[in-house]
Design goal:
The complex is a heterodimer of chains A (about 70) and B (about 425). With about 70 residues, chain A is of the alpha+beta class. Chain A is built from 2 helices and 3 strands. Chain A has a two-stranded antiparallel sheet with strand order 1-2. The chains are: A alpha+beta (about 70), B alpha+beta (about 425).
């Protein structure tokens, strides 16, 4: 009985972590502009069709990130 | 510092059509990589936004101020090294487009939608078969989450621009964006997507009025401008306006007595969409309802084609009482050489008269939840055997306003093709 309760407790502690990994949280403006926080390692395609860029791979150099539109 | 490899610049655009941003990049000579986020997976709500990120990936300045550029940006960011941070709380899980596009196995509706989003982003606007991805995003949108509605609208618009287009895609995209905006009225990226194709009276600024100048200047430099495969609509080129349309008068109906033989949609499919002003996404709608943009697409059926030696199609609109428009007669652009089978598009602005200042009349009758616009198009079209004929097709567009009685906003339009949307 004690063993079963302990297993359930461990399972309960692990489940939220597992579900976070399965179902990613959505990004918000705060994901990009909160001073002191890391930017998320997002990978997006380039507009010129020349592959993708993973922002997480750009560490080691300072980065100026510009969200904009041509309109 | 960029040349020395100490600083890198990366742009992210949220536009539906990446080629337009690519033309802008070419025109302005921007030499940094620009990434494409049409579905808004980054979660940004307004642009422009500028962030200075240190060598460890940590945000150091949000929106550097030009007023203190030297102290804040040059001395406080560029000229100093930052310590590696200790353990930071894990941020939101990433969106990795290649990884998500390969998701397999038993997937939830949400996971299928994320995979579809990734696949559409990788395929880009040149994607030819996207029905499965569109279906996955529409299924997710049935949950009613604003973000899913927006994504569904982006996918529908991508299909509208591609070979799998259905007759309801243009209106469907606008309606989906409206549904998204009604759920999140402060999401300005979503609002701009509607305003891009919406009335000039609702525009915060012109969207793509710079394209002609950009093309000309790129050509003057001896370069070939980036091709915009999805043609610019008049609404996208229109300047911001704060005046209701004024009739120029004197327009002549192309078939006032209705003598031209009807095409019930067998030769040309007519697609109609209404983009309301985004104020209609608010909780309170005043009377009258304001401006809208009516979009009409004429698409030759397989085997039919536009003649190259005849005048292009003409649209005549008889909107009825209570609407203002600069002219009820609008000409389509010529299909041009090689464009015999391409879709021809036109759009025009309609407005109700200006709202009188003062509080709304509490005794006024409730406004109608729908209004119907009628008109017709006349065109020369060639049959598969090469014979060219002159035909007329009727237009009916039902404008649906949001609200308790109006349901989802937008329009429901059709030519004579009825429910055949393929």
């Amino acid at each position: 009985m004690v063993l079963r309760s302990a297993c359930l407790l461990i399972l309960g502690l692990l489940l939220p972590v597992h579900s976070l990994a399965e179902e990613p949280q959505e990004l918000t403006p705060g994901s990009w502009n909160t001073v002191g926080e890391r930017i998320p390692p997002v990978e997006l395609p380039r507009i010129d069709g020349r592959g993708t860029v993973d922002l997480g791979s750009l560490r080691g150099r300072k980065l100026l990130l510009i969200h904009f539109a041509s309109w | 510092m960029v040349a020395a490899g100490e600083l890198q610049v990366v742009g992210i655009v949220q536009e539906q059509h990446p080629a337009r941003a690519l033309l802008f990049q070419q025109w302005k000579g921007l030499d940094f990589p620009i990434l494409w986020d049409p579905f808004g997976v980054c979660g940004v709500e307004a642009v422009p936004d500028l962030t200075a990120v240190d060598e460890h990936g940590v945000v150091r300045i949000d929106r550097p101020s030009p007023k203190v550029f030297q102290e804040q940006f040059v001395e406080g960011f560029l000229s100093r090294s930052f310590e590696a941070p200790g353990e930071l709380a894990p941020g939101p899980a990433p969106f990795r487009v290649n990884e998500l596009a390969r998701l397999g196995g038993e997937l939830s509706v949400e996971q299928r939608a994320r995979r579809a989003t990734a696949r559409l982003m990788l395929a880009g606007p040149e994607a030819r078969t996207i029905d499965g991805e569109v279906a996955a995003l529409l299924a997710a949108a049935s949950s009613g989450r604003p973000r899913d509605h927006f994504s569904a609208g982006v996918a529908l618009r991508m299909r509208f621009d591609g070979p799998q287009v259905r007759g309801t895609d243009l209106q469907g995209s606008i309606d989906a964006w409206f549904a998204a905006l009604m759920g999140s009225p402060n999401q300005y990226i979503w609002r701009r997507r509607i305003q891009q194709w919406g009335p000039a009276l609702d525009k915060p600024y012109a969207f793509y009025d710079w394209v002609a100048d950009a093309r000309a200047q790129v050509q003057e430099r001896g370069d070939r401008p980036v091709t915009l495969r999805a043609p610019l609509s008049r609404a996208e080129r229109a300047l911001r306006s704060r005046s209701v349309p004024v009739s120029g008068g004197g327009a002549v109906a192309p078939d006032p007595e209705g003598r031209v033989i009807r095409d019930p949609g067998k030769l040309v499919r007519m697609e109609v969409a209404v983009a309301l002003n985004t104020a209609a996404a608010g909780p309170r709608i005043r009377i009258p309802r304001g401006a809208l943009r009516l979009h009409v697409v004429l698409r030759p059926r397989p085997g039919a084609s536009w003649p190259t030696d005849a005048a292009p199609p003409v649209l005549w609109l008889d909107p009825g009482e209570g609407w203002l428009l600069s002219s009820p007669r609008v000409g389509f652009e010529s299909p041009g050489e090689g464009g015999e089978q391409r879709a021809l598009m036109v759009d025009l602005e309609l407005s109700t008269p200006l709202i009188a200042l003062g509080p709304p009349d509490p005794n006024a009758p409730p406004p109608p939840s729908t209004q119907t616009l009628r008109g017709y198009a006349v065109y020369s079209v060639c049959l598969p055997d090469g014979t060219c004929v002159f035909r007329r097709q009727e237009l009916t567009a039902v404008v649906r306003y949001p609200g308790p009685a109006g349901g989802e906003p937008g329009g429901q339009g059709e030519g004579s093709t009825g429910g055949d949307d393929r």
